[in-house]
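User: Please fill in residues for this 463-position structure.
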């Protein structure tokens, strides 16, 4: 979302693409729910208004006929200059939006991974050049891209008049805009629709040299805060006599030092060269402090009910036959660990979905139940009964054989990081996962938890 002439605050609303689905392939088992979600997004955009939308794998995964029907039904302003379907171009290459006395030219590019039958992504630079030329004289040039950011930079090198690229291809969140060789800025608003990116600028000034003054202060603040964390960890390390604590602190210090190096690189890039035009880039988190738009909220509530109806009643998983036995089976022998687990968000993961009426959502349930990533785990939100929440077996593996013969069958005592990143993958959690900070919250390694079990007898597990 771009605001020009801050005193008057006219707004241009854009979506860079990949809004409808997370990838290039949409299975038939996912299609029912995801078509309903995509329709909800289209209904919402049509209701509140949007000026231009990019096209990515997440749109094309539904198939071109379905996407074109959705566009026609809701008058969606898709732009894609280099989507070539046998010589035909299914969407406009670009468009002009007039706001605040400015002509703003917007062109779309699809990435070369775009996959839809009979179509391909043609050479992007020539397509973008032709599309902007067709728009005529404009004051601001914006590219909506579902390419990789490295490809965006290459396009920018050949388009010296380009002001902004809004990237939806990598699903990254560029709170600090990335400089382009043109003097413009590469923007990215993240994924999952939890935040709205806002770029404000004055219409005064000429040229294409833009700088986000606020970004410099934010980078410096982050660098100072991280440096302070290093100092505090080093002070603790100097006083510690516990080898395990020393190892954790050393890992933490190394992690923070890498962060400082990266922040210094970003500061260097942000201050390189001169700048004649100023912007302010910020993200508005769509949390509970932002009131729901009543008509949109009604659309969402109706869609949730229809999505739940596609799944039906939640049925129990066959705990008596499958490899998973549920966390209750671990309690008799591992009471201390179970007690610690019960204090973590993992123990309430399923309830957090229920509070939002999302427990039957195919895209959500797997990270809120036990065993969904295992071939013999719950394969649908309709069969998770008994394995709700992120339980013991989510991290330590299926437990039936261990419960039956605990002395001869070991569980996974120390899970690999890959277990965590199935869900904390930088996309689902919007990049918040910091192993140094997170793992200590779920660790069972405090001294009283390491004591041998006083009740080694295996529990009886009923079907």
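Assistant: Residues filled in for all 463 positions:
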């Amino acid at each position: 979302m771009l605001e020009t002439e801050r005193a008057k605050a006219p707004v241009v609303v854009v979506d860079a693409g990949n809004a409808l689905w997370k990838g290039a392939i949409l299975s038939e088992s996912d299609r029912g729910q995801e078509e309903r979600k995509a329709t909800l997004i289209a209904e919402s955009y049509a209701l509140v208004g949007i000026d231009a939308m990019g096209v990515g794998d997440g749109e094309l995964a539904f198939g071109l006929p379905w996407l074109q029907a959705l566009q026609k039904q809701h008058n969606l302003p898709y732009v894609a200059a280099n989507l070539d379907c046998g010589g035909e171009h299914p969407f406009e290459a670009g468009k002009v939006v007039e706001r605040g006395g400015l002509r703003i030219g917007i062109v779309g590019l699809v990435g070369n991974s775009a996959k839809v039958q009979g179509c391909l992504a043609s050479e992007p630079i020539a397509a973008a050049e032709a599309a902007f030329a067709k728009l005529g004289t404009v004051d601001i040039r914006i590219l909506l891209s579902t390419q990789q950011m490295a490809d965006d930079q290459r396009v920018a090198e050949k388009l010296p008049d380009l002001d902004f690229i809004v990237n939806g291809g990598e699903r990254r969140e560029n709170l600090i805009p990335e400089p382009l060789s043109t003097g413009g800025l590469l923007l990215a608003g993240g994924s999952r629709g939890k935040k709205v990116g806002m770029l404000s600028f004055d219409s005064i000034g000429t040229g294409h040299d833009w700088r986000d003054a606020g970004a410099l202060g934010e980078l410096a603040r982050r660098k100072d805060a991280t440096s302070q964390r290093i100092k505090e960890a080093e002070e603790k390390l100097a006083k510690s006599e516990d080898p395990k604590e020393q190892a954790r602190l050393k890992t933490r210090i190394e992690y923070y030092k890498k962060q400082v190096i990266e922040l210094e690189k970003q500061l260097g890039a942000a201050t390189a060269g001169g700048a004649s035009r100023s912007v302010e880039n910020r993200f508005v988190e769509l949390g509970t402090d932002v009131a729901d738009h009543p008509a949109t909220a009604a659309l969402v509530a109706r869609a949730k009910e229809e999505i739940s109806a596609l799944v039906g009643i939640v049925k129990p998983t066959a705990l008596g036959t499958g490899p998973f036995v549920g966390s209750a089976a671990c309690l008799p022998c591992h009471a201390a660990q179970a007690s610690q687990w019960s204090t973590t968000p993992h123990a309430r993961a399923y309830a957090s979905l229920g509070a939002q009426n999302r427990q039957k959502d195919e895209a959500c349930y797997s990270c809120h139940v036990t065993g969904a990533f295992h071939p013999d785990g719950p394969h649908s939100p309709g069969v998770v009964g008994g394995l709700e929440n992120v339980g013991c077996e989510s991290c330590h593996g299926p437990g039936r054989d261990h419960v039956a013969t605990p002395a001869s069958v070991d569980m996974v005592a120390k899970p690999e990081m890959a277990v965590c990143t199935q869900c904390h993958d930088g996309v689902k959690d919007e990049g918040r996962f910091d192993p140094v900070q997170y793992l200590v919250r779920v660790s069972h390694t405090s001294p009283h938890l390491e004591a041998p079990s006083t009740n080694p007898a295996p529990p009886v597990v009923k079907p």
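For context: The chain has 14 helices and 15 strands.
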